[in-house]
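Support request from a user on the community tier.

User writes: "When I paste my structure tokens into the form, the page sometimes reloads and wipes my input. The last time it worked, I copied everything first. Here is what I submitted, just in case something in the input itself triggers the reload:"
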């Protein structure tokens, strides 16, 4: 029998796979040598992290960790005019971080038959917001006097993200990166599809091509109702996207599922009994049984319930699609 890692890679790469994959087949690492992880409030390593959360990210933006939301909020923009970004933004030397030490102290943690994944927080639009605030960021994407500054910034950010991904892959065996950049809200995109195509897509495409060349699979993380951008997400080279419930996921899977691998959620909003947990996941499995999808399991599952679900999914064969 193939390992969960092998099964998931086969699934993402469009090869024969044995059974429906799930988030239980992934193993996440978010090392504490990365200031972005501490700032955004989530460290996952071999030794449980007990230090402070929040603080400054890669570029000096200050974040405050909010335990209620299990995440962080930036305290304010670094500056206002994106045309001045090169006066305010200093790119850190990623090679100066203790990658060797991080790899060494996580040696046992990284011995797994699951697929190792990590997250690159704060993509292009989110980074722009963190620098100049939402209103200035939105204007900068469409203002002819500011566009060139945005292009220069995004070009340099792309080089930075490529190096970051390469280091994660080479030192920590990361084969799946969730690239985090929100493009929508509850009702619609936060900018037009044309603006996305002009200002963001070229850099995402270059980044994803480089990540694939390193042997890394890509999950596009983007919240909000962004169905209109799914063709561009596919064209960019992303391997999967799971999106949020305001998107008509089943319709998208039916339309694009022959060439793209969607993630679908079985979200436990409140604590469930064992029977309720199995019923919830079973319903999602039955809905998508005939399509190539993987299941994401967020929310209030107990460890025992997750083990029951793992066993159930092991018996769920790959879609004949």
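"...and here is what came back when it finally went through:"
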């Amino acid at each position: 029998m193939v390992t969960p890692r092998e099964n998931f890679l086969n699934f993402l790469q469009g090869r024969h796979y044995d059974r429906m994959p799930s988030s239980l087949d992934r193993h996440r690492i978010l090392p504490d040598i990365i200031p972005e992880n501490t700032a955004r409030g989530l460290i996952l390593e071999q030794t449980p992290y007990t230090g402070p959360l929040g603080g400054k990210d890669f570029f000096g933006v200050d974040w405050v960790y909010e335990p209620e939301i299990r995440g962080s909020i930036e305290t304010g923009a670094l500056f206002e005019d994106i045309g001045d970004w090169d006066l305010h933004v200093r790119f850190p030397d990623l090679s100066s971080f203790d990658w060797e030490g991080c790899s060494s102290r996580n040696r046992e943690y990284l011995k797994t038959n699951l697929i190792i994944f990590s997250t690159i927080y704060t993509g292009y639009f989110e980074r722009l917001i963190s620098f100049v605030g939402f209103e200035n960021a939105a204007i900068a994407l469409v203002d002819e006097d500011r566009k060139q500054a945005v292009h220069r910034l995004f070009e340099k950010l792309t080089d930075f993200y490529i190096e970051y991904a390469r280091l994660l892959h080479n030192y920590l065996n990361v084969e799946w990166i969730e690239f985090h950049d929100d493009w929508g809200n509850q009702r619609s995109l936060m900018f037009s599809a044309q603006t996305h195509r002009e200002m963001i897509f070229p850099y995402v495409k270059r980044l994803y091509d480089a990540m694939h060349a390193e042997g890394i699979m890509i999950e596009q993380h983007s919240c909000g109702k962004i169905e209109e951008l799914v063709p561009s997400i596919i064209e960019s080279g992303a391997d999967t996207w799971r999106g949020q419930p305001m998107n008509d996921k089943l319709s998208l899977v039916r339309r694009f599922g022959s060439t793209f691998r969607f993630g679908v959620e079985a979200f436990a909003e409140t604590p469930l009994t064992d029977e309720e947990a199995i019923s919830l996941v079973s319903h999602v499995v039955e809905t998508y049984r005939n399509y190539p999808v993987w299941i994401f399991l967020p929310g209030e599952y107990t460890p025992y319930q997750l083990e029951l679900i793992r066993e159930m999914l092991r018996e769920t064969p790959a879609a004949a699609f």
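Agent notes: The reload is a front-end session timeout and is unrelated to the input. Residues 147-172 form the longest helix (26 residues). DSSP finds 13 helices and ten strands in the chain. Escalated to web team.
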